[in-house]
Each structure stands twice: as structure tokens, then as C-alpha cells.
Amino acid sequence: MATVTILGAGAMGAAQCRPLADAGWDVRLWGTRFDDELLDLLSTGAPHPRTGVPLPDSVHIYRSGQLGEALADSRVVVMAVISAQVPRLAREILEPLANADSLWLTSKGFSQVEDGRVRLLSENLRRIAQEAHVELPPIVTVAGPVLADECAAARPTAPVFACHDISVAQRYARQCSTPAYSIMASGDEVGVEVCAPLKNSYAMALGLVDGLSERDGAATHNLRAATFVQAVHEMAVFGRQLGGDPMTAAGLAGLGDLEVTGQAGRNHGFGRRIGLGASTTQAREEMAALGQSVEGIDSTRLALLFADQIGHGLLDHLPLLRMVGDVLLGREIDPLASLAKAVLPRTS
Ligand SMILES: NC(=O)C1=CN([C@@H]2O[C@H](COP(=O)(O)OP(=O)(O)OC[C@H]3O[C@@H](n4cnc5c(N)ncnc54)[C@H](OP(=O)(O)O)[C@@H]3O)[C@@H](O)[C@H]2O)C=CC1
Ligand SMILES: O=C(CO)COP(=O)(O)O
Q: Which residues cross the membrane (predicted)?
């Protein structure tokens, strides 16, 4: 099978090696300069500290100084670094990207360009390439409910591969699916790319509900259900405004990813800490001390900017997202009352 190069040896980059190796791909894993120590450890056969699972034996490891070698003759390049770093990394590798058959985005985030405007990550990458007079291959957004540790351990997982050209997504779904990693192909690249970072904001809201329940010793199941449904509704509204299919929010990329992230994701853990009484800064520090990145903090800010930029009254339809934004900014609000106001149906 052809060569695939995964860029970023964090939890997800390392986890993605498992299904691709099992599907018979020649897998290369490249780590950023932050990952060199991690790669030294992984090359001994030790488990990845963030997933608890070792790499498959067949994976070739490349250290930060070996980016060119890692990309040489690679047919597929997978971005698995934190989303904020994807554009910078892409700028460095435009030529090998142009020679690949496709670029996959595992990173989940929006992207802010130099003039302050917000774009979808894929849109920003195409703009960067265009400015450099380079043509990118098709972009495939890899999303859906995929917790890294379960994926790495080949536990049953249902990712979504989305591409404007659905035949590209279908081809990779055929070539990369395994009994444990069964890919759903989608032609709704926009809808999937909107859901991927938005569900992080909403997983924080679910964490907040759970933290409040723990803090008060009182059940909040009803409020949680209303929060969940409002979150799916807002993902659908946001996606539709950008030309995506609103039904995507009701599938694996929206509802499905919200379910796992809102149960066991890092964004949920961050929201739960705030519900328990931590400030945003304290919650962020506690997560950092555990070595856990919380991308929803930045992507909530960008999502709100993006919605404002899109206009057409979109922000008015996103009360839950605005509420999460208020919490992140440390605004003096009663979280339980504010959540209830954002998600309970209004009678007038
Ligand atoms: N974990 C999961 O379950 C899933 C994650 N994702 C997405 O995958 C992406 C990566 O997440 P994940 O692997 O979990 O996160 P990790 O924090 O485990 O790893 C992030 C990766 O980005 C690197 N990185 C950190 N800072 C920088 C920087 N300044 N410049 C370049 N690279 C940097 C990290 O290096 P270092 O290791 O030194 O921190 C690591 O390679 C995210 O966008 C996430 O949303 C998608 C699906 C599931
Ligand atoms: O995206 C994820 C699962 O699909 C993981 O989310 P977290 O970044 O919150 O852990």
C-alpha cells in the first residue's frame, strides 16, 4: 500500500497510526520539536503517555529535523498538530503537499487570518497555497467521534472522512477502513468542518452542567439533555449558514462527536472544572498540568468572531455558544441560570 505521513505525534497523531497500519498503509509519524522526547520514548516500544498505547511495530518514526525525509514520496499527508499551528506548518511544506494525492485534516479548529478574519481551516490552507501559486490536492476532513486512546487500541470507532468530492472520501473510506475503524464518507466538507471545532465549545457546556451538578449535589439530567439538543441545533444552523448540510449536525460528525467529547473529552474536563467552581485560568492551568490541550477555548472565541463576521443574525441563533463565550471571558454570570436561559425553549 502507499505511504501516508502523519504530522504531529500527540495523542491523535499517534492514535491514527493504528488503523492505517492495520489497513496496510506504510505509515510514517513525524513529531514537532515538542515531540522529540516523546518519539525517543515511543521508539523503545513504550506506550504513548497520552493514550497508554504503543505505536504499531511497522510505523516509521521521524524526528523534528527530518520533515523533508518524512514527506518524501508520501501520497497522503495528515495534519495532526494542534489546529492553531496547522497554517504555519502547511506554509513550510507546500511543495510536498502539492505533490501528494490528498491532504487530511485531523486537527479540529477554525483559523484566523492576518487581517483578523476567521475562516474554515481548509479554506485558509487553500488561500495560503493560492498566494504561493501552489495547487493543493483534495482536502479530506477527518472528524467524528474518535477518542485517541480508543482508536489507538483498535476499539470500535466510526470516523467521518469528508471531502467536497465525495468520490475521494469514498475511496479512502474503502482503503482505510478496518473491522475496528469503519469510516463513513461524506461530501459535506463544510458541515463536517464546522461541527469538528464547535462540538468542543458545546462539550465544555456539557462539562459545565456536570460540574454544577457535582458541586450542588443535585441532578441536572434535564438541563443536560436540553443543552445537548440546543448544541446540535446550533451546529446545524452554523453549518447551514456556510452552505453545509444541516443534517450533518445530527450525524456522527456533530451529535456523535459531541456525545464522546461531552462524556470523556478534554473540553468536557475543562468545563466540568469551571462548573465545580474553578476560574477559567485555574481550569486551564489544571488541564495544562495534566498535559492536556483544550482547543475549545480558542475555537469558541474564533467561532463567535466568525459568526459575527458571517452576519445575517447568526449570533442571535447561537445563545449557547455566546453563553460559553461569556464563561470563558470570566464574565460575572450565574452559570446555572445562564445555561437554562440559553437552552430551555422560550414560550414567547
Ligand atoms: N485526542 C483526541 O481524541 C482527538 C484529537 N483530535 C484533534 O487532533 C489535533 C491534535 O490533538 P491531540 O493529538 O489530541 O493533541 P496533543 O496535545 O496530544 O498533541 C498536539 C500536537 O501538536 C503539537 N504542538 C503543540 N504545540 C505546538 C506548536 N506550537 N507548534 C507545532 N506543534 C505543536 C504537539 O506537540 P506536543 O506533543 O509536544 O504537545 C503534538 O504533536 C487537535 O486539533 C484535536 O482537536 C481529533 C480527534 C480526536
Ligand atoms: O475530538 C475529540 C473526540 O472526537 C476529542 O476531544 P477533546 O479534545 O475534548 O479530548
A: none
What integer pLDDT is reported at residue 330 of this predicted model? Answer: 87
348 lies in a domain? Answer: no
Whose CA is closest to atom 37 on ligand 1? 10
Output the CA 348–ligand 2 centroid distance in Å. 36
Determine whether 199 is an active site residue: yes
- What are the tens digits of pLDDT across the range 8-20? 999 999 999 999 9
User: Which residue numbers belong to the known binding site for substrate?
Assistant: 108, 266-267
Domain boundary among 131, 163, 187: 187
User: Active site residue: 50, 199, 240, 268, which one?
Assistant: 199
Q: Specify the ligand 1 atom closest to the Cα of 89.
A: 31
Distances (CA, A) of 69 to 30, 189, 270: 10, 30, 37
pLDDT of residue 346: 83
Q: Is 201 in the pocket of ligand 2 (CB under 6 A)?
A: no
Please report whether residue 19 resides in a domain. yes
User: Which ligand is closest to the CA of 290, given by its number?
Assistant: 1
Task: Mark the ranges of the chain whose per-residue pLDDT is less than 50.
Answer: none
- b vs e for 32-54, b when ≥16 Cβ sit within 10 Å of the residue's Cβ? beebeebbeebeeeeebebbebb
By the 8 A CB rule, do 250 and 201 touch? no
Q: Kindly report the protein residue whose alpha carbon is nearest to atom 25 of ligand 1.
A: 82
Task: For helices 319-328 and 296-310, give the axis angle rounded to 10 degrees.
Answer: 130
* Domain extent for 296: 190-343
Per-residue pLDDT at 348: 65
* CATH code for position 46: 3.40.50.720
Q: What is the per-residue pLDDT for 333?
A: 86
